[in-house]
Amino acid sequence: MNPKITAITDRIIERSKATRAAYLAKIDNAKSETVHRASLSCGNLAHGFAACGKEDKSKLRGINHSDIAIISSYNDMLSAHQPYETYPQIIKQAVTETGGVAQFAGGVPAMCDGVTQGQPGMDLSLMSRDVIAMSTAVGLSHNMFDGALMLGICDKIVPGLLISSLTFGHLPTVFVPAGPMPSGIPNKEKARVRQQYAKGEIGKEELLAAESASYHSAGTCTFFGTANSNQLVVEVMGLHLPGASFIAPNTQLREELTKAAARQVTRLTQQSGNYLPVGKMVDERSVVNAIVALLATGGSTNLTMHIIAFARAAGIIINFQDFNDLSDAVPLITRIYPNGHADINHFQEAGGMALLFKELLGAGLLHEDVETICGKGLTRYTQQPVLENGQLKWVDSVDVSGDPEVIATTELPFKPDGGLKVLKGNLGTSVLKTSALREGAQVIKAPAVVFEDQHELEAAFKAGELEKDFVAVVRFQGPKARGMPELHKLTPPLGVLQDKGFKVALVTDGRMSGASGKVPAAIHLCPEALDGGLIAKVQNGDMIMVDGDSGELTLLVDEHELENRTLAQFKVNGHHEGMGREIFGFMRQSLSSAETGACSLFHILDGEQ
Prior knowledge:
Elements: H1 3-15, H2 17-30, H3 42-49, H4 54-61, E1 67-72, H5 87-97, E2 101-107, H6 113-116, H7 125-140, E3 147-151, H8 157-167, E4 173-175, H9 187-198, H10 204-214, H11 226-236, H12 252-266, H13 278-281, H14 284-297, H15 302-313, H16 320-329, H17 344-350, H18 352-362, E5 371-372, E6 375-376, E7 383-388, E8 391-396, E9 420-425, E10 428-433, E11 443-451, H19 454-462, E12 470-474, H20 479-482, H21 491-499, E13 504-508, E14 521-526, E15 543-547, E16 552-555, H22 559-564, H23 585-590
Parallel strand pairs: 1-2, 1-3, 3-4, 11-12, 12-13, 13-14
Antiparallel strand pairs: 5-6, 7-8, 9-10, 10-14, 11-15, 15-16
Helix pairs in contact: 1-16, 5-12, 7-8, 8-15, 9-10, 9-21, 11-14, 14-15
């Protein structure tokens, strides 16, 4: 093992000693020596299988057959989740063939950041993760189940499912992906058209044509945003079958993998004699592996918050500094848009997850001896699934990248580090994704231009007021102020200004899209403006240093002057009403800081960080 990664893992284990011990005691107390439904009264059990057929009722009366919960994020508006429509019946049949029963335990909401970007509904996006966790808990609360299958893909869905899965850590759990859509127009072309529209060179018809050619069928969006970063993280944690993440939907291989996932969870139940609850399977080493893989591939910055949140559900305490220090130890070995021109299908064709596992394991960057749903050790994940005469098999993957411009080696990486930097200074603590930045863009010192809404910046850009070097300060976007919406509309105008030769950067207590790229963005700033962060005292013209090399984020204003300034006040301006935002007030107020997961479900005490 790489000694730096070992040392960081050890400090996480030490930091988490008390909370992890309490968690393991909790899930030990929740497990059952027989089927969980054995604790139900006759009336409870009768309600639990009332809608089942005669054969399933007969099985569920006894104590020898497992009952598997299906939790699904299916809806047919969103491309990533539409393929899940047929999964329940496929899963039920596969579990029946093992002698067990599968029941659809509950659905969870799934909203799409792509639909809500720049819209009022985006203010609900991050909070939907906690709603998904709670919805999953409701589905599992009947205590009928001996294992669970989680059907989820996108930005907040998988983290929400993980939080709840680990809360119900006494249950064996397998995650079941659906796969990416076929490649559309190149991502570079899509970005070019967006910037043309931002400059007023084309109209909405041309823009819609390009977007529709990119997002064009069932399946996950193909860029390496939060959705595909989720899939990578779940597989590296051993919660997917090997190679399952990026197989296309509506194919025979995809269906056979779904059947195999259903069968696999039955092999992990108490009744199988091979009991492996997810809460024990996922440990500190598993979480470090997830972060390493995220960094090695230049994945979404949203996962910095999500990993912190779901790790906390398992009693494991992670912070931004862990990401920073692991980034220093992990080379960037993939180029997937926005870190390059390839999409996730090109990554799969170049060797995909199996080759990524080989590279990272070979360099001692992953803990190999962790538990997975397929048994102990990650070596099995260096194989890839194939169909031979209609039968699912796993075979050894390629040893050499099919496209060295997409997957490199740890000896000759694209960058020597993982491209994630934690910035600290008088403005607070933030995260900067450096993996997609152009040469010379990591250090920006320029005067501030202050906004309190991304649409204000867009209007200033269209009015020609931003033709200069500047640091855009977009505040009151944090968890408690707005629910931390992604500020996706900032990317095209700032990209246009950067292309014109201006030195531009962003500082915000909000989030950027998982597809953010070439503009340096100090995001997830803590403390946020509504919590009295210094960002609330920034004025137009103040000099700001954003240094992705040294890790500095400084407001270059005399301390005496700052002491005499008053904090700007948050102007709600209707941001807490409409599109359901008014009913989320209780959750918004209880969200923790970004560095503690921006979560309403777990409040990490200062002494635990």
